[in-house]
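Long-time lurker, finally posting.

We've been working with Pca regulon regulatory protein (Azospirillum baldaniorum) and I want a structural starting point before designing mutants. I don't trust myself to interpret raw outputs, so I'm hoping someone here can both generate the C-alpha cells and explain anything notable. Sequence follows.
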Amino acid sequence: MAPRRPSSRLSDTESATADADASVKEGGPARAGDPLMVMSVEKAFRVLNAFDAARPTMSLTQIASIVGLDKSAAQRFTHTLEKLGYLHKDPETKRFELTVKTLDLGHHYLRGNGLLERSMPYLMHLSKTTEETINLTMLDDTEIVFVSRFMSRHVLNTDVVIGMRMPAYCTAPGVAMLSRMPMDEVVDLVDRMDLHPYTPNTTWKREDLLAKIERSADLGYATAFEEYYHGDLSIAAAVVGPVGTPIGAINIAVSRSRFTPQEAEERFAPLVVAAASSISTIGRPTPPRKNAQR
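Top reply, 14 upvotes:
Generated this for you. Predicted structure of Pca regulon regulatory protein:
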C-alpha cells in the first residue's frame, strides 16, 4: 500500500515533483564558484535528472523551464544528449524521453562495486534460507538507495526496485547506518531531513528519532515496523568499513500478515547481524560515538 501523508501536505506526486524541480534547478552540490567545475557537464546531468516517473516525457520548453535554462541552451543540451544516445526525441510529438542507454552508468556501478560483490553470497544465502525479501542498501546523504534486492515469493512492495530511494529516518537500513555514525554527524543529518509521518507508526519527531538511533546502536540492529509502508516489517544491520564507518546495510523485510513485530525481530535480527558482520571489514575498532547537544 502506498504511504499516506496528512491531507494538509502535498500529494506524494506533487511533493516529489516540487522536490525534483528544486533539486534540478539548484544543481545539487555543483556550484559555479568551483574553478574545476565544468558547468556544461553539470547542466547536462541536470537535464537527464529532470526526467522521472512524474515526467517520463517532456517538451523542449518544459525541459528549459524545469532545468532553469533558456530555450536555446536547452536545445543544444538535448540535441547533444540525443546524439550520444541518452535521449530519444519523438519525431511526431517532439517530446524527449530517456533511453535504455542511461542504464549503463548504473550497470557499470553495480558491476564494479566491491561491497556488492562481497555481499552477494550472504544475500543469496539469506534469500534461500529465509525465503523472505532481502535488500542491500547504501546511505546517500539523508536517503537510502537500494543496490541489490532478492524478492520473496511472499511479495512485498513490488514498486521497490534497484536504484529506488527512501528517507533514511523511517527505514530500518537507514536507522541502522545512522546508528553506526558519530552522534554529531547524526544530528547534522537529522536536522537536514524533512521529518514527517508516512504512516501512524512513523518515528518522525526529532527527539524520538534520535533516541531510536541510540537504541539501535546499543542493539546492533534497527527495526522499522510499518513506518513507511503499511504491512511492512523490516529488520536491518549496518555493514561497516575498516574504521567502523557504515558503508551499507542488509535488511530482511516480511509481511505483517505473517509475523508479529516481536516474532520478526526475534527470528531475523540475529541473521541480519551475522550477515552484516561477516561482510564488514574485520579487525578494526569502531570509533567512539561523540556526544552532541540535541
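Before you design anything, note these points.
Residues 1-20, 26-30, 282-288 have pLDDT under 50 and may be disordered.
The radius of gyration is 21 Å.
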